[in-house]
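Archive entry: two folds, one per protein. Generate the first.
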Amino acid sequence: MSPRGRPRSFDSDAALRRAMLVFWEKGYEATSMADLTAAMKIGAPSLYAAFGNKADLFAAALKTYKAEIGREIWDALSKAATARQAFADFLQQTAVAYARSDQPRGCMIALGVLNGDTDAIPACELLRGCRLENSTLLRARLEQGVRDGEISPSADCRQIADFYATVQHGMSITARDGATLASLQSTADAAMTAWDALTSPR
C-alpha cells in the first residue's frame, strides 16, 4: 500500500483529458466506470480519490472541454467586423471543428446527455446551463449589432440567437452521424440566408 500523502503516480490533467474524450464520444449515460478507468489508465480507487464520483468527473471533464475545445468557434464572434460576418464565421468554424478527424465528432455540450435517470440529472443540468450560456453569447453579439446600427432595433435578438444555436446543435448531430465538412459548411451557408429576414425591421 502506498504511504499516506504520497504524490499521485499519474498525470491528472492528462487523465482528465482522456476522460473528457470518452464522455464526448459515448455520452454520460453510456460511459461506464470501466470505460473511464481503462481510458485514464488508472484504477478505480485512484479515480475516486482524484476526481470523486462519475458526476464529479464529468463536471471536471466538461470544464476542460470548455477551456480547450472549440475556442475558435466562439472567438469568431468577437473578431469579425460586423455581426453578420461574426455569425457566418461562427457557423463555418463550427463546421470545421465538428468535422475534425482527430477528435470525436460534434459537440460534447450538445450530445453529452439530454434526459436521463436520476444519476444523469446533474450532468443534464450542467449541459443545459452551458447551452443557455452559449445562446446568451450569441444574443450579446446581436445586441452589439443593434447598437452599431447593423441590425434593426425591432429585431428579436433572443429569437435570432436561439435560431442559430439550434442550427449549431443540429450540425453537431449530423456531424456525429457522419456528415462531411462540405455538407456542414453547406448547412452553415443555408442558415445565413435567413439573416436579412431575421434582422430587418418588423
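Generate the second and append.
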Amino acid sequence: MSTDNSEHMRTIDRWLAGEVVNNTVGIKVVGGPFDGQTKIVLLGEDGRPPAVIRASDGPAGPSRHAYEAVRSTDVRAGWIYAYTGPEPATES
C-alpha cells in the first residue's frame, strides 16, 4: 500500500510542478483571494485547460470568484489562471 501511496504523491508533485501527467496539470492561480494556489485540471482534447474556473469562500459561497486561463511563458504548464473578479451572489 505504501508503494501506491508513494506513486500517487509523486504524480501530485509532478502536477504541482506544472508537468502534464495523464492529460492533467497543475495551473497557478494569480490574483484575487486564491493567489498563489494551484488548481489541478484535466486538459481538453486540444491540450487547453478549462477557459474559466470559479472558486468560492465556502461550500455555498458567500463570495464567488472567477479566473480565466491565460497563456504564460513564465510557468512550466504554459498557463495561469488570472483573476477576473468577484461574481454576483446567486440564489438557489
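Annotation attached to the second fold: Residues 46 and 90 are 32 Å apart (CA to CA). Helices lie at 2-16.
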